[in-house]
Design goal:
The protein has 248 residues and is an alpha/beta fold. The protein has 10 helices and 6 strands, in the order ααβααββααβαβαβαα.
Length: 248
C-alpha cells in the first residue's frame, strides 16, 4: 500500500493502466480525476477504505446494484490516490460481517457476491466497523493519510460508542467521510450531522469527519456530485492534521 504524499501531480494509477485493467471504470476514473483536481489534491497519496452497511434496511440497495456502483466509484477514486489499486472493504451490521479487498480489474460484481455469502443482515453498529478500520490501518504500519468512505442508511444502535470511536480516531491520520442513503428527512441522519460537527478541540483533536446525503436513489446521483462531496472536506482535514502534527 503506497500512501505517502506524492511529489508529482500525476494520478497514482495512470489512465492507460485503468484502460488495460478496468476499461469499464474509465468514465468514473475521469470523473474522479476532475474532482481531485478541483479540490487541489493532485499528487496527494492516501489509502482509501470503504465501509458498507449491511443492516436489514439496506437489502434493496444491494439488490438493485447500488452498493456495487458505490464500490466502483470509490475504487476509481482510489486509483488517483493509491498506486496499489486496492481498497480494503468492511461490511458491518450488528458486528463486522466480513472484510475483503476490492481490487482494480477484479471488482466486477464482487460486492453482490460477497454480500450474498455474508448471511444475516442485523442492526447498525458503526463502532465495530470503525474499530476494524483502525486496526487495519495500525497494522499497515503507515503514518500517511487515509480516506475512509463510510456508507450507512441511518444512525447506529450505540451512538455513544460511535462518538467515542470517532473522537479516539481523531489522533490518527484517518478522515471519515460518511455518506447517507435513504430519505433525507429521516431523523436518523441527525446523528451523522452531529458527528460532522462535534466540537474541536473539546471533543476531538481535529475535525476528522464529513457527511453528505446521497438521496433515496443514490445510484442515480451524478458521479461528479458524489466525488465533489467525498472530497469536499478532505483537503481541510489534511491541513488541520499537519498543523496538529498528526501528519508530517
Amino acid at each position: 500500500m503506497i500512501v505517502s504524499n506524492g511529489s508529482e501531480r500525476a494520478p497514482a494509477i495512470s489512465l492507460t493502466k485503468v484502460m488495460e485493467r478496468a476499461p469499464d471504470l474509465v468514465d468514473l476514473y475521469k470523473a474522479a480525476g476532475s474532482s481531485v483536481r478541483a479540490h487541489g489534491l493532485e499528487g496527494v497519496r492516501a489509502a482509501v477504505y470503504l465501509v458498507l452497511d449491511r443492516s436489514g434496511s439496506m437489502r434493496p440497495y444491494y439488490r438493485d446494484g447500488t452498493m456495487q456502483h458505490l464500490a466502483e466509484q470509490v475504487l476509481s477514486l482510489s486509483a488517483h490516490l493509491d498506486d496499489d489499486g486496492v481498497v480494503p472493504v468492511v461490511f458491518f451490521s450488528t458486528d463486522v460481517d466480513g472484510c475483503t479487498d476490492l481490487t482494480l480489474g477484479r471488482h466486477r460484481g464482487l460486492m453482490d457476491k460477497l454480500h450474498a455469502n455474508l448471511g444475516h443482515m442485523g442492526r447498525t453498529n458503526y463502532h465495530w466497523a470503525m474499530d476494524e478500520v483502525i486496526d487495519h490501518y495500525l497494522a499497515s504500519g503507515s503514518e500517511a493519510p487515509a480516506l475512509v468512505v463510510f456508507q450507512t442508511d441511518g444512525g447506529p444502535t450505540s451512538r455513544l460508542a460511535a462518538e467515542r470511536y470517532l473522537c479516539k480516531a481523531a489522533r490518527l491520520p484517518l478522515f471519515w467521510q460518511f455518506i447517507g442513503f435513504g430519505d433525507p428527512e429521516d431523523n436518523e441522519f441527525a446523528f451523522l450531522h452531529k458527528l460532522d460537527t462535534l466540537a474541536v478541540p473539546a471533543r476531538r483533536t481535529v475535525d476528522n469527519a464529513g457527511f453528505f446525503h446521497a438521496g433515496r436513489t443514490p445510484r442515480t446521483t451524478d458521479d461528479n456530485r458524489v466525488y465533489d462531496h467525498l472530497l469536499h472536506e478532505f483537503p481541510q482535514w489534511l491541513d488541520a492534521a499537519r498543523a496538529a502534527r498528526i501528519l508530517e
